[in-house]
């Protein structure tokens, strides 16, 4: 059921709905929108820092983020539970002239060796999997001792989730078969296999591209502007995305 959902929805990007799926124009538009919406991501992911390193992207989707690692010289492996995602990721890499290894695989039970990767990237995935705990343990297992990972989870105390509850604002893929939400305390507990970690919150209000009419006007002129007018001390813990920067201990097996 979960893989079937993502087979149908992995390419369902409203901003690219006028383009043929799998074309260069489609991939370019998806990439543009993703990195404009998640403007924090290039700086915090450090795509350029892993040249020559083995990078695993769990839940790679279309390979948009995977391509950023590969374009900077990383040796990338992308896995996804969706067959459609993997086929499109391969097409994405083909037109870009990039090298990468892609496999259909469940991130909760990776068919990959232990202590194998220099970096594991797991962004926009944990909240869609039945057992995030199992996926975090797999991330820990496949990382080399001393290696790092980036993990991301949805903040149920965020501004966006609050807006969804009071005004019915639709959140991307909330209709997925699995959609977990937690808070800072829960995310710290989820990442317990990594005793050393730093958690930061990102994705604050930005003007919408995918909504129109009065809803867009109200959201853009009232909610976005009002939010940014508030003191940072009141809003700094309300980011929709919680990112954990974790490292496997050098002595871990």
Number of domains: 1
- Roughly how many Å is the radius of gyration? 18 Å
Helix share of residues? Answer: 25-40%
Biggest sheet, open or closed, and with what strands and sense?
A: 7 strands, mixed
Record keyword descriptors for this entry.
7 strands; 253 residues; Rossmann fold; alpha/beta
Could you describe the 3D structure shown?
By secondary structure, the protein is an alpha/beta fold. The chain has a single domain, classed as Vaccinia Virus protein VP39 (Rossmann fold, 3-Layer(aba) Sandwich). 38% of the residues lie in helices and 19% in strands. It contains 10 helices and 7 strands. It has helices at residues 2-9, 24-37, 41-45, 64-71, 83-96, 132-142, 159-167, 184-190, 213-229, 232-235, and strands spanning 54-58, 75-80, 101-104, 117-122, 143-154, 196-202, 241-247. A 7-stranded mixed sheet has the order 3-2-1-4-5-7-6, sandwiched between helices. Helix 6 (132-142) links the parallel strand 4 (117-122) and strand 5. It is globular and about 50 Å long. The relative contact order is 0.14. The mean pLDDT is 90.
